[in-house]
Specification:
Elements lengths: L1 H27 L5 H18 L1 H9 L2 E26 L2 E28 L2 H5 L7 E2 L6 E4 L1 H6 L9 E13 L7 E5 L3
Parallel strand pairs: 4-5
Antiparallel strand pairs: 1-2, 2-5, 2-6, 3-6
Length: 189
């Protein structure tokens, strides 16, 4: 009985954090017009490619780049994340998407970060608009580029469908990752 109450208490606390995270994300993104999402995505991509040579090299070869300039993630055992972004082709926004995710396990904290996904072929881009949205970890091969991998990779050795870079991390969160996130097309005003 005491063990069950303890688990219910942890679950209730985690759900409160999840609801607060969703509320923060929704409140913070109310002003996300198409123009603002496009501008923020282009600025975030420029900053990423200026500081990460592998991202700059991939930018030249990518068919499209999906940029989420600001994702909010928080959790305590159960976590959630949310953010909006733009799909860029030749520097221009051609579509808008949001990313959401719910996770469970050993995690705690809150964090803001961005990520960019470099789509290397048309087939990978086509997966974005499948019915029900695009789920990271299902379908095309995605390689998450950390700092070490980005330094040792050349464009001639890159053969995968999608390369993802996490950037501008602020806050403390144990358990950051992209696996299991869902990306869905949106129509910002």
């Amino acid at each position: 009985m005491i063990q069950a109450r303890k688990h219910l208490g942890i679950l209730a606390g985690a759900l409160m954090v999840l609801v607060a995270t969703a509320s923060m994300a929704a409140d913070g993104d109310k002003g996300n017009s198409a123009a603002k999402l496009s501008s923020d995505a282009q600025a975030a991509l420029s900053q990423l490619t200026a500081t990460v040579p592998a991202a700059k090299a991939l930018e030249k070869k990518a068919v499209a780049i999906l940029v989420f300039p600001s994702i909010t993630k928080a959790g305590l055992m159960i976590g959630g994340q949310y953010g909006d972004g733009a799909l860029l082709k030749r520097g221009k926004a051609v579509g808008y998407y949001n990313t959401t995710g719910i996770s469970s396990g050993l995690q705690a904290g809150a964090q803001k970060f961005g990520y960019a996904m470099f789509f290397m072929n048309d087939g990978a881009v086509a997966q974005l608009d499948k019915a029900g949205g695009f789920e990271v970890g299902m379908g095309p091969t995605i390689v998450v580029m950390d700092e070490g991998k980005a330094k040792s990779t050349t464009t001639t050795s890159m053969k995968d469908d999608i390369y993802a870079f996490i950037f501008s991390q602020k806050g403390i969160m144990a358990g950051l990752g992209l696996q299991g996130n869902k990306i869905t097309k949106i129509d910002p005003k």
